[in-house]
Amino acid sequence: MKNILGFANDLSQALQRKDQDFVNSMKLVSICKLGLLRMREHGWNSLLSQVSSFCEKRFIIVPVMENMFLTPGRSRHRAQEITNIHHYRIDLFCTILDMQLQELNSRFNEINTKLLMCLACLCPKDLFAAFNKETVEFSGLNRICDLAQKMVETNKHKVFSLVYLLVTLALVLPVATTTVERVFSAMNYVKNRLRS
Hints:
rod-shaped; 0% strand
């Protein structure tokens, strides 16, 4: 369990940090999945040798892996006919690794991972270093008014109504500011004329 949970430790620590780094966290998810898969395919022999060494140092009897596995509390007549290696490797080791992988895959499936990577693009940390221009369908736009037009063309203004509202506000703001400045200028002119 120490070896298995060791793979998830860095990921767990990264996900619990207050300053989330989604890009790094998603890389850690991939590394954790890959490590668990490698352990499942190639880690049994090293684990068995570590356990055998531990048991020999403490004078604990290590079962012979080729012998039949006997379930405690069952008679030999009703016992399943499986070997110790099948029980410990398939029923325990691989099952635990499969459960870990299934949990990671259900929490960090392809859609969730892509969504988190897109959220990372919005992080202003390091001048939006996580932003990948090639993955954005709006990449050819140069001005805010082009963005507003593209949002209407692709019906994104309905889905992202608040973003569209913010974009239109940014478009109207210079005009509104100029209009307000003119009104204040006219009011100052009138006040000065009345005072005179």
